Amino acid sequence: MQTRRKFLGVSLIGSAAVLAPKNSFAISGGLKEAASGSPVVLSTWDFGKTANVGAWNVLATGGRALDAVEAGVKIPEADETNQTIGYGGLPDRDGYVTLDACIMDEHYNCGSVMCLQDIVHPISVARLVMEKTPHIILAGEGALQFALANGFKRKNLLTEKSKKDWKEWLKTSKYNPQINIENRLYDKKTDPMPGGPKNHDTIGMVAMDANGNISGACTTSGLAYKMHGRVGDSPVIGAGLYVDNEVGAASASGVGEEVIRIVGSHLVVELMRQGLKPEEACKKAVERIVQRGPERSKTIQVAFIALNKQGEVGGYSLQPGFSYSVRSNMIDQVIPAKSYYS
Ligand code: ASP
């Protein structure tokens, strides 16, 4: 299983310029990955590298970005060793694994499911909401009924490992979403919390296909041990994900409440519309979170990734430790993001 700090097969080099392979070049505030028209996919965290394989299989054969992002994020959704997404995700405080996901295409079509249980691939349900209903969001029992009516099979998503971690957590029931900051504020010795620093991490993925069209997907089991019914930013169009095919796309990971407050992904896209490079736009959005809550911002993690219409990519986080995975004709890398705090 990959962890954020292992960066399997990837050299930990802090500079995008050094990471850039031949024929690509670093530019101020964004890594130039592909000329417009060349496919590129990027996703949150190091486990995005594996997800990118699924997306790349579609993109490399001339497929649509929408199909690519769906195929890509389905990989961690089905991976039971990933305790922050889909099957195997850590449950809420009552022991229910509830999933949030959304998807958006190049025509501003979007679909979302919130608090969905017992379905391994919420992203595919979100896509069906987009394509088969007049609505954008289905939640809870209604989303489940819609999925079952469309042929999805029920599966218990709570694995033995996640059940064990939850039972351990129940001993103290310490609800504290202010974690997920490895090596920094989180101290396993003084503040043990089963599930620990890996108790939240969403996969957000954005991609551009060979036709220059952009789509995105975002899927998560949300904050571990959250209140039952809690929905984060990930299925909220504009917060966890936004795509504007004229400008670019962005996605988020981290404490969703903070991302929703600033409508983070939409903000990143609008900043790119104003001319900022992807990394600069992500940085500005992170700074907005700091401005509106300087003290709180020290205790949480939030991260953004972005892709513009020129095929440039970037990411930025509040705390160190965030990375994003990029795949194009020229690169297949996990890139450690710069962060506001050091
Ligand atoms: N954004 C997710 C949520 O708030 C969690 C995460 O990405 O870590 O549900």
UniProtKB/TrEMBL annotation:
<dbReference type="GO" id="GO:0016811">
    <property type="term" value="F:hydrolase activity, acting on carbon-nitrogen (but not peptide) bonds, in linear amides"/>
</dbReference>
<dbReference type="GO" id="GO:0005737">
    <property type="term" value="C:cytoplasm"/>
</dbReference>
<dbReference type="Pfam" id="PF01112">
    <property type="entry name" value="Asparaginase_2"/>
</dbReference>
<feature type="signal peptide">
    <location>
        <begin position="1"/>
        <end position="26"/>
    </location>
</feature>
<dbReference type="InterPro" id="IPR006311">
    <property type="entry name" value="TAT_signal"/>
</dbReference>
<keyword id="KW-0732">Signal</keyword>
<dbReference type="InterPro" id="IPR029055">
    <property type="entry name" value="Ntn_hydrolases_N"/>
</dbReference>
<dbReference type="InterPro" id="IPR000246">
    <property type="entry name" value="Peptidase_T2"/>
</dbReference>
<feature type="site" description="Cleavage; by autolysis">
    <location>
        <begin position="201"/>
        <end position="202"/>
    </location>
</feature>
<feature type="active site" description="Nucleophile">
    <location>
        <position position="202"/>
    </location>
</feature>
<protein>
    <submittedName>
        <fullName>Glycosylasparaginase</fullName>
    </submittedName>
</protein>
